[in-house]
Structures are given as C-alpha cells and as structure tokens.
Amino acid sequence: METGTMTIEKELNKYHLNTLDADRLTLDVVERLGKRVEGCRRPEVIALIKRVTVLGVLALAAEERTETFATTAWLSVEARCDRRAATCRDLRYFVRRMLKIPGVGERPLRAMTTSECRELLRQAFGSSLHSYRKGRAILHSIFAYGMRQDWCEVNPVDRIEMPRVQEPTIEPLSLTDADRLLKTSTSPKHRKMRFSLLLMLYCGMRPAEVSRFCPARDVLWEEGVLIVRPNVSKTGGGRMVPLRRVAHLSRAECIIPRNWKKRWRELRHDAGFEHWRADTLRHTFATFHAAHFRNLPELQLEMGHRDVNLLRSRYMVPASRRDAEAFWLRIVK
C-alpha cells in the first residue's frame, strides 16, 4: 500500500502537485456532481469521476480546436468561389478591410466575442451604413463557415443588431418620361437597345439582369414568357415573367448588344435624363402593374421577391388606374 502511495506521490510531483491537491480536486468534482453521487458506492463514485475527467478532456480539446480569423475568412471566401465575379470581388474587398484592423487577423475564431465583432464592424465600416450592413452580413458568413468546421460553437454576430435603413422612395417614370425613352430607343443609334428597354420597363428586369440575359436560350416565344435564371438574377433565384410589348419586334431585334452599360447610359442621356436613380424602370413596372392588374402575389413572383412586404414598403407608389391602363395598353412602335 505504501509503495502504491509513493508511486502516486511521485507521479503527482512530476506535475508539481501533491496528494492534498488531488484530494481537493476529487472533492470539488464530487461536490459538483451533487445528487448524482448521493447513495452511490465507492466504485460507482470513482467511475463517475473518471467519466467526468474523460469528457472534460474531450471538451477542452474541442474548445481549443480553432483557426485564426484571417485563415477562416479567406477559406470562407474560397468556399464561395463559384459565385459571380462581382460577388467574389466584394467578398475579398470586405475581408481585406476587416483584416486591416490591427490584431484581428491573428485572433482565434473561437475566442472572438460579440463586443469585439461589433467594434470590428465600427472601425472597418462605421463611416457608411450601407457598408456596415454588408460587412455585418459577410462577417456573419465567416463565423457560419467556422461553425461548420467546428472552429467555433456560436456565431457572435447573431447578437449584433442590423441597422435599419430608411429606403428613399424611388418615383416611377411619368407616362411622358417613359415615352421619351421609348421614342429615343427607336432611333438608329439606339435601336439595338430597344429590346433591353422593353424588358426593364414591361417585364421588371433589373439592368444587370438584362445585361446578362440570353434571349436565344431564355425566351420561350411559343409560351410568351422569359426565364430569368439563377445565374442571371441578382438574388440568385430564378423566375418566369410574361414577355410583354415585344410583338412588334422581329426575332433579329431581340438581342442584348455588347457594351451594354455604355449603350444604356447613352440612351438615357440622349433621352434627356441627366440624373438617373437605379431601378427606376423596375419601380415604374411595379407601380403600374399593381395599379392596373391589382394582383400583388402575381407581381411578387414576377419581381422575384420572397413575399409582398417589400412591394408594400418600397415599390408601392400610388398611381391612377387611368395612367396605369395607358401605360399597359398604349401602342408601342
């Protein structure tokens, strides 16, 4: 027995511990087990203590398994390399801005707190509400990637409030302004943009979606619909939209020309629009669609929205039914 005690003491001394330390630690475990050990016999208590020890070691190993924030951030960007080129550029740009904050890149992902992440966002993006919101979304995705790799257990960005943005109202074009655009698009200089203009004005497509659109593949002429595929759509979700107001165009005129952005800018300029709000034509489409057809679920599907709330909060500008009828029923030459 003495030999066994001496062996234990010798092993404890290797770790600068003694039998009194071991007794205290054992008592601490037993006290924390509480009712779990009441009425147990000695072998059962020892088995419980061993189990607690093993589980504790495993938990500690899992807790210490992590990566630095910089490594996780770049790996999360790499995991989304199949996104559009513009999206990948945005991801890299925002990650670089985060990593410019001193000390952030070397921080263990598991150790980062909500307050630390909030300060990171403030320093990196605090001067712009738009950048702050986008930076928060990307920071959240970095931690979500880390959780999938078991490099952290929680996403501290969940508890960071997303700042509310008061979206400015985008007024739809008047019938006169719409006519100016349509008339300008009939000129020889802008004739190749005629189809694009009709897609934005009467199908609600975004400019970037039109620039990526492939009429030869995605216009179903017999069914009178067009397909906005996920790789074309801004939100990554596909949708089908009735093909409106193009009956007077030949198939040869239904094209998306090269240098599309430049041509679209020149068309607006030659129509007399010096200042232009993005998505003006999309808002015009939504306003007159709602006023004329009075079918919000259908409009929601054509716009590619998840629900009708965005239509009510941002796109719903009152318009008279007479103007809406004139918008949809006028003869487009």
CATH homologous superfamily name of the largest domain?
Answer: Intergrase catalytic core
Provide the spatial order of strands within the biggest beta sheet: 1-2-3
Distance between the termini: 106 Å
Order of helices and strands: HHHHHHHHHHHEEEHHHHH
- Main β-sheet: number of strands, strand sense, barrel status? 3 strands, antiparallel
Rough outline: elongated
- Helix proportion range: 55-70%
Helix/strand class? mainly alpha
Mean pLDDT: 88
CATH uppermost class of the largest domain: Mainly Alpha
Number of beta strands: 3
Low-pLDDT parts are none
Total domain count:
3
Strand content bin: under 5%
Number of DSSP helices?
A: 16
CATH architecture of the largest domain: Orthogonal Bundle
CATH fold naming of the largest domain: hpI Integrase, Chain A
